[in-house]
Records
---
Amino acid sequence: MAKVLELFGGCGGLGFGFHEQGFDIVACNEYDPNIAKTYKHNFPETNVIVGDITDKSVKQKIYDVFSKSLCDIVLGGPPCVAYSMSGKRNSRDPRGKLFNDYVEIVKMLNPKAFIMENVKGILTMMHDKQELTPEEKVIADQYYLLEKEKENLLEEKKNISFNNEIGTEKSEINKQGIKDVNKQIAKMKTQFPIFRMKLTDIIKKRFNDIGYSVKMELLNSANYGVPQKRERVIFIGTRNDLNIDINYPTETHNRDGNNGKLKWVSVKEAIDDLKDLPEDGSIQQIYTKHNDKFIEKIENTPQGKSVNPKYTEAFFRCDEDKPSNTVKENHGGVFIHYEKHRVMTPRELARLQSFPDDFIFKGSKSSMLVQLGNAVPCGLSSAIAKEVLNAL
C-alpha cells in the first residue's frame, strides 16, 4: 500500500480521493488546529501534525513519521490567497511562497511522485526571479510598493462598500486612487522581464532542480461529475529515475452530455432532497436566519443573479439546472438556494463539493464555510487518485 503525506491538508478534500482509493495517508499537516479537528475526525488513522509548515520543528515531526518507512506520494495545495483572481493579488505575500516549503519537503522525503493543486489564478501570477541583482531589486521594490498601495486601496474600497455612512466623497477619492495606481502599474509592465517570471515556471524549475519532471493542467471539476464548475490547476511531478507516467483523469462529463459523456450534474440534482429537511446539526443542515428586508431582496433575485448587483459571487442565486459556480466562503455571503429564500446550508455546500453526507465538519458554522470554500472537491480528488494508483 502506497504511503502518502498530505500537506496543507485543510479538511481533507484532496486527501479524500486517495483515502477512498486505498492509499495509506500516513501523515497530514494542517496549520489551523480547528480545521485539523475535521481531518482527525474523518481520517482517524492519519497522524495529523498541527502547526506552521515553515517551522523547522514541524518539518522535523513530518520527517520523524517517515523515518521508518518510505514516502511514496506527497499531496497538497499551498494556500491560494496570493494567487486568487478574486480580490487582491500580492506577489510577495508570504502565503504565495509556501511552495518553497513544499519543495523542501519533497526533496527531503524523495517520494516517487507528488500532486500539487492550486487556483486558476496561478497561471497568470508573476513572481520575482529567484535571484535578483541590486539594480533589478530596486525596480522590483518599486513595483511591490505599488502593489501594496493598491492592496490598501482595495481594502479601503471594501470597507466603504459595507459602510454607506462614509459617503460618496471618500468613495470617489478611493476610485481615483485605484485608477492612478493601476496606471502606474501598467507603465511598469514593460519592465516585468527584468525582475519577474511566471510563477508556474519558477515552480517547475524548482522541482526540476531536485530531480522531478513536472506537468500541469487546468481541470474543471464539473467534467468529473462534481456539481460545481470549480477549476483547479493540477501539477503532477514524477521522479526522473523511476520511469513513471501519471496521466490526467479522463473527463466523464461535459456541458451537453454529448460525445459519449454524461451531462454535467446540476445543483438541483445534487441538493434537491435536502431543501425541506428540518434543521439537523448532526449532518450540518444548519439554516441561517435572515431579516425580513434581506428575505425580500432574495425573493426579488432571479436564478443566475446576486442579491447585491455589485457582487458576482456573494449571495449568488444558483441556476438549478447547471453546476454551481466555485464554492467560496465569502465571509458568510454564500450561495442563495435556487428555490428557497435563504442561503445554502453547510451540508448543501458540502454536496456541491461532492463530500458524502457522513463526512462531518468540526467547528463553528463560519469555520465550516471556510473549510468548504478551501477544499478540493472529492470527486476531482478521487479521479486523480485513480490515475496515480494505475501508474504505481
---
Amino acid sequence: MHTKGYGWQRQRGAGRVLRALGALALCAALAACGGGSDSPSSQGSSTALSATATLGKKIFNDVSLSASGKQSCSSCHDPASGHAQPNSLAAQLGGPDLNLQGNRIAPTIRYLASNTGFFFAADGTPTGGFFWDGRAQTLLQQAEQPFLNPVEMANATKADAVARLAKASYAAEFQQLYGGDIFNNVDNAFERMALTLQQYQLEDPVFHEYSSKYDAFLQGKTALTDQEMRGLALYNSPTKGNCAACHLSARGSGGSMPVFTDFTYDNLGVPRNLELRQNADPDYYDLGLCAREGGDLAARSDLCGAFKVPSLRNVALRHAFFHNGKFKTLKDALTFYVQRDTNPEKWYPQNADGSYDKYNDLPARYRRTSTRKRCPTTANRASPPR
C-alpha cells in the first residue's frame, strides 16, 4: 500500500486527467480516482504471501508455461497498466508462434475479489461472472482458460500445460505444496496450478488497493479541487453524466470502498474496430453475452451485444478502451459517450443515402437493444436509434 500522501502523487490521478480533459473532467476524475497501484513501483508487494500465493505469483509471470515460450499471464495483465494489457492493440497476440490475434482486449483483473459468479438479479439484470461475457463462474475458472486458449497461451491440452509446469524452476515447490506425485494426475495438477493463481490474486494487495486521492476523500482525509468536485457532480448526476449508474462511486454497505462497477452488462453500440482481424469478414459480429461459450444464453437475443461493465479504477493507465479496443485514449472514450447519437458522423461510416450506419458492430436486428437508459449521458438519450 502507498503511505505518504496516500500514494496519489505518484499515480496518474484524478487531477492530472482532469487538467488534460477539461470539460470532460467528470469521468476522468473517477477514471483515476479509483485506487490501486497506479505507479510502476507498485508492481511488487511487501505483504507476506502464503506459500500458495507466492507460487501463484511465479506462475503468473512464467512465460515457459505457454506454447510459444514467450507469454505469461502478466504479458496481457501488466501491473504497470493496472493489470490490463500493456499496449493499445485491439487484442493481444498469442498462439504457438505468438502471431494469432485474440478476439477482445485484455481486461483488468484487479478488484475481481468483489465479483460473484454469473446470475440474473431479481429484476432480470445479468450480473457477475468473469471475462467480458461472464463465461467463467470463479477466479479459478478464469485462471484456467488462458492456458488452453489457442490464441493465448495455446497449450493443446491440460497435459501439455502440466508438462511445462513440471519443468519449471519451481516445480519442486509445487510438489512440496501438493505432493510428490502431483504431476502424475493431470487434472489435479492443472486445477492446483489455477488455484495458486486465484490465491495470488486474492492475497496480494496490489489487486485490491484503495490508496488513491478519491479514497482519501471518501475517508475525509483530503479535499477534491473545485474542478474535481464539478466532475464528481456530473459523474453522479442522473440527468448529466449518470456514470455512477453503472460505475458506482459511493461507499458500499459497511463502508466498503467502491470498485466503480456494478458487474452488470451493457450494449453500448461501440463502433466496429477493423483492427480486429475477425472483423475483416463483414458477416462476423462479436455478440458478447448471448453468444458466449456453452450457448446457455443463445435464446436471449435481448442480450446480444452486451458486455461486462468494467471497473474504472486505474483506467487512466489503460491504453485501449471497450471490449473491442476501438478507442485509444480516455478522452475519446468519454467523447463517444457524450456524442454517440448527437454526432454519429464522428463514429460511424456513412450509408449511401447519407445517413450513418449507427451501432455498426451489431447486426441490424440487435441495434435497438443498445443501452440508452443508464450509462450513456443525457445527450445520448436525446434521439432514438435509426
